[in-house]
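Throughout our pipeline, every protein is held as a single compact record rather than as scattered files. Such a record has a labelled line for the sequence and another for the backbone structure tokens. This encoding replaces a full spatial description with a residue-level series of whole-number codes. For reference, a complete record is included directly beneath this paragraph.
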Amino acid sequence: MYGRFAFCLLLLFCTPALQDEVRTEDTSREIFGTGDLGEERFGQQGRETEDADVSDVPDEESEIESEVERTHNEESDGDVEKKVTAGRRAKPQKKKKLHRVRPGQKKAVQGGEDVRLEEEMGRTNHSDREIGTDGEGVDERDEYGHVEEDENEERPKKKVKQGGKKEKKKKANKKDEKEDDELEEIERIVEPQSQECPTMGLESNRVEDYQMHASSLMRYGLGAHRARLNIQAGIIDDDMYDGAWCAGTSDHAQWIEVDARRLTRFTGVVTQGRNSPSRHDWVTSYKVLFSNNSHSWIPYSEDANGEDKVFDGNFDEDTPVMALFYKPVVARYVRLNPRSWNEEENDGLVCLRMELYGCPLPDPNNYYYGRNEATTSDQLDFRHHDFREMRQLMKEVNEQCPNITRVYKIGRSSEGRKLYAFEITDNPGQHEPGEPEVRLVAGLHGNEVLGRELVLLLVQFLCLEYKAGNPRVLALVNNTRLHILPSANPDGYEDAYAAGSEMAGWSLGRWTKEGVDLNHNFPDLTSILWESQSNKERGSRRSPNHHLPIPDWYNSEEAKVAVETRALISWMQRIPFVLSANLHGGDLVASYPFDLARSAWRGFEYTATPDDHVFRWLAFAYASTHRNMADGGQRPCHGNDFGKEGGIINGASWHTVAGSMGDFSYLHTNCFEVTVELGCDKYPHEVELPQEWENNREALLVFIEQAQRGIKGFVESADGGPIAGATISVEELDHDITTGEDGDYWRLLNPGEYRVTARAQGHTSITRSCDVDYEMGASECSFVLARSDPRRLRAMLRRLHRQRALARFRARRRGQDRTPLRPLEGLGARPLLRYYRWRAYRGHRRGHPRTRPRPITQSLLPRSHTTPPKTNTAVPLQQSSSIS
């Protein structure tokens, strides 16, 4: 008994000291962190306090495990209280607790591995200890990772404790495998399947102006923000929009740098000279330097001795030159330091344009980066397609949706490639009376490839959404006949495709193999229209305002007309298109006719059509639904800030173009066409296609739906037959349209009330009022024309001809018109002479001296008359009695 009492006193006096020691060790651990010494000390303390852990001797493997846990804990943001070692244990209590996982430890490993190990050791009573998920079960581990044991449960024997070392080995191996998997995942993200990284986006304006800096600049128009690949200068130099960055002084201390705003794996650079109408400046060699803080810079080197690499630059101002890095460099900042430049001119300048290749590295700590970037959820084929791949894609979409699609050809290119068109409608292959026809044409310039890929994405999207039952797509397909021409110049595209995205430059592939610019190769009907209007003002016959015929010289063999252009014209004449979009690239704007300035001596002049208000609405419908086109804060691509004007512009006020497809479509057919410039980069990289699809998807759908605006109807005769070629005129709009073979027509109009007249040869004309609502859907406005009496019609024509002839004759007598009289239908020279003599005799008998006849000579008659009068002069009647 005395022994027990002595033991209790000893325990009472020693317990506070032990607690102070443990508390001191805990405090030092929280302050200094986890170390090897601390691990060893806490491991010995655990062995002193618990005899069951005889196998937990700190050896090399346990130190490795502790080092892995310590490294992971330092990287995590967990509390310091959770950073405990595997050697520290707490005595089990009877009360159960919820499981607390140590930082860096997987639940699956704690649960699944322990269960498997227990099964291997022969434990059978483990079903009631499974780790629950989402509150379905209870984890019976304490805050140090050990299992709480119940009193009634049999405690494991030492055999189980002997497995602790193996268990730790497996856990360490699992952690190593986890880290290896994470590293492989990061490498998979950093190193994509394609070996080269995409462009950073200097040309496409993804890199902002404030990310570009330079050592000096000559003036603001030649600042660092102008050092973008393929940027174009203005018409004259020394303005706000020049075509490169030019240093203020020409020496080796000049540089230009780009801030990627995050760590990036740089793989190459493309350089280009200055775009200027009068100068020839470019850099012939340069160095590349990298930095992570923009203060200390490391030159790129491929030499084992550390010698700086000097890259070859350009040999002219337009051809891009690519330089790929043999060893990719991870950095945030990249700088180009010109070492030599073109000095053939006396005042050679240091000027360049560039594009960078780089893969942004994943940054989990940067939460806000890319949150506002649009990402697409459409499962489409986002890549560039050559001619064979394009044909295969169109075939696959046709096989997926055979009931609403059709692939056909409209002709061949100069190299024999077929011009494939894709049709989407509920009854492909035939025109439905009363249904508008819409066309989308891309690739008129072969190097402007974004429109080609967008329409290919559109056909995939419409097919998938139609099969999914999208009501908007169902209405579009059932009520519209859509024709898509992905590549109007396939030969030029193949040239640009072979060169690549950045190496095609600004003009490679623009023209056909025959050297023809298709957008300037259509008949110039605009000049013919203005000439006829000028003759009308001088008193000639009424000039036509629609369906102007193609000049004879255009169809001759001497005319330089591309075969692609003739195929397009034939296609436009066969199908009664109502609305069209001509997709281009190189800028961000929607332009509308006229494209040719009326004043020949002016390079740009606002030249409106009679339907200017309709064209402005069509262009704005596309620009306003585009994600960036109508944004006033958007950086201009080159020199014109179209965003301030809502993203639209009259074609002639931008730059005058003779023989454009839009002007020809308006004056030769019933179709209203708008030209859409889709972006600054004519040939964007494949990684930018999803973003561009999101920018243009809604705009394409909204534009196609505009074919349902205005008025529509049929023109029929009284007996119920359709009247083809009937003219539909709108009051105060000097542009008419004609009906199709089925007597149907579509006239695009803005909301309002209009007076519409339908007329046809051999029928009486009818005028009625037609209203156009603001809601989507064309208003019905049909006509029934009665046949006119032929005899009455001939009498009216004869009376009209006489009135015109008399007016011309009186004007000639007064000396106001010296042009010869034209021969009149039904009236020859003799009947006309007898008529005027009768008029003169009638005036003399009535006693009107002012109507006394004057001599009528042959010179007053039309020169084209072949039958001359019997006498050259007419004798006055008052002198006839004196002549014998």
